[in-house]
Design goal:
With 458 residues, the protein is of the alpha/beta class. It folds into 4 domains: 128 residues, Rossmann fold; 183 residues, 3-Layer(aba) Sandwich (Rossmann fold), CATH 3.40.50.300; 78 residues, Orthogonal Bundle (Helicase, Ruva Protein, domain 3), CATH 1.10.8; 54 residues, Orthogonal Bundle (Arc Repressor Mutant, subunit A). The chain is built from 19 helices and 16 strands. The strands form 5 sheets. It has a 5-stranded parallel sheet, sandwiched between helices. Helix 3 links the parallel strand 3 and strand 4. Helix 5 crosses helix 14.
């Protein structure tokens, strides 16, 4: 990491000189200010990572400086110092976002320790900012509309973004997104939609595993009033409501063969007929499908229609699992800590070295979704500024064993899926609804998988 740039704001020259002389020995870049206006001018002109601010100042007090700094320069971390150290000021400083508070006289070594403790968090925030700027249009749009972002610096995720940008330039090309559960397939679909000309119209996501045969035509194509019991009004189906927009078909591999034939017909003809109606309705919808299964293999085994597979897979985007892009893990950790700490009103700065190593060695069968859930639970349990192993109860990943050169690596996707489901059921204490929520799949989809693996609980 490049040297931190630190601003020292204190109206006493002696204090400024003592702190700066000590910190320069640690090769920090030091900026000095004797009043708030001078400090804000420095912040405007230079990139500052951390500010050390006295409470008692001319022009305005240090708490007001802290408030303005966090509003105008939220990326700057602030340490407060004071000759009084009353508890009210301490509480207010922490509430406004200070990372530490030291009453005078303080030990310079304690100031340095606080800076070093924040160093890794500042570095991760820098990397997140650099990456966000590199795909700012996509990332900001996704965050504004969905509250999620594309996070990563790995070549793998950059290639995914490049493919998203390329296919978004076409208007009707069908896209198939492949990848394990939890890799972010819906976020990629959303990104394609927002980058395309269809972004002014609706994006709708459908979990194909949750649609029964009896509801399929009504949900997808709509129905006329009185066409069946409960049809009290005319209703548009998803193809009509997303006209000129994007329809995302998640878990397409779970769609029964009988439904696949009806879907294929609509994709080919671009027309739908409501249940109970005779009129054909023209629709203009881009379809993006996603699956964590090997659809091509399923098609070869007659478990999925090959003609539908070829219709959906005009353009394929594969999202690699998190274990194949581990350089993105620190960024994702920093991002999730920031999101959940802010939402819970906590000041959590980083993870300990033990936690960092623990997460780097873990293979994440649940991918980003699993990491996100782990960080959320840890933030709930954490009352300090650093996430420690104690905030991850029941988590003890095994370090990957070294594989001999001639050994055959057994990458069993089905076994990994079984392990992930068993882990979710254990965490949810065998509550299927809670486990399905953890896995971000429907209750029906989880139930089918439990029956498939023979692990259903009585």
């Amino acid at each position: 990491m490049s040297n931190l740039s630190i601003l020292i704001l204190d109206d006493e020259k002696r204090v400024r000189d003592e702190i700066s002389e000590y910190l320069r020995k640690n090769e920090f870049n030091i900026f000095l200010a004797s009043c708030p206006s001078e400090a804000f001018a420095i912040m405007d002109q230079s990139t500052i990572d951390l500010a050390i601010v006295d409470i008692k100042l001319p022009e305005m007090d240090g708490l007001e400086v802290l408030k303005i700094t966090k509003q105008k320069y939220p990326e700057i971390e602030v340490i407060m110092i004071s000759g009084h150290g009353d508890m009210g000021s301490v509480i207010e400083a922490m509430r406004l976002g200070a990372i530490d508070y030291f009453p005078k006289p303080f030990r310079l070594i304690d100031i340095n320790t606080s800076i070093q403790r924040s160093r890794r968090f500042i570095e991760l925030n820098r990397q997140v900012s650099i990456y966000n700027n590199s795909i700012s249009v996509l990332s900001k749009k996704l965050y504004q509309d969905n509250g999620s972002q594309m996070i990563g610096v790995s070549m793998a995720i950059k290639q995914v973004v490049e493919l998203m940008e390329r296919v978004s330039l076409t208007d009707n090309t069908s896209v198939l997104i492949t990848g394990e559960s939890g890799t972010g397939k819906e976020l990629v679909a959303l990104g394609i939609h927002h980058l395309s000309k269809r972004n002014k119209f609706l994006f709708h996501s459908v979990n194909c595993s949750a649609i029964t045969d009896s509801l399929f035509e009504s949900e997808f194509f709509g129905h006329r009033k009185g066409s069946f019991t409960g049809a009290i009004d005319d209703r548009q189906g998803w193809f009509e409501t997303t006209n000129k927009g994007t329809l995302f078909l998640d878990e397409i591999g779970d769609m029964p063969m009988s439904q696949q034939a009806k879907l294929l017909r609509v994709l080919e003809e671009r027309k739908v007929s409501r249940v109970g109606g005779n009129q054909s309705i023209q629709v203009d919808v881009r379809v993006i499908a996603a699956s964590n299964q090997q659809l091509e293999k399923m098609a070869d085994e007659k478990k999925f229609r090959s003609d539908l597979y070829h219709r959906l897979s005009t353009f394929i985007i594969h999202i690699p699992p998190l274990r194949e892009r581990k350089e993105d893990i620190p960024l994702l950790i920093a991002h999730f800590i920031k999101v959940y700490a802010q939402s819970m009103g906590k000041k959590i700065e980083a993870v300990s070295r033990e936690v960092s190593e623990m997460l780097q060695h873990y293979h994440f069968p649940g991918n980003i979704r699993e990491l996100r859930n782990m960080i959320e639970r840890a933030v709930i349990l954490c009352d300090t500024r650093v996430l420690e192993p104690s905030h991850f109860p029941g988590f003890s990943p095994k370090k990957p064993q070294l594989i001999k050169t001639q050994a055959v690596v057994n990458l069993d996707l089905e076994q990994m899926e079984r392990d992930m489901i068993e882990r979710a059921m254990a965490m949810a204490e065998n509550n299927k609804s809670k486990a399905a929520s953890l896995l971000n799949i429907s209750w029906q989809s989880l139930d089918r998988r439990l029956k498939k693996f023979g692990t259903e609980q009585d």
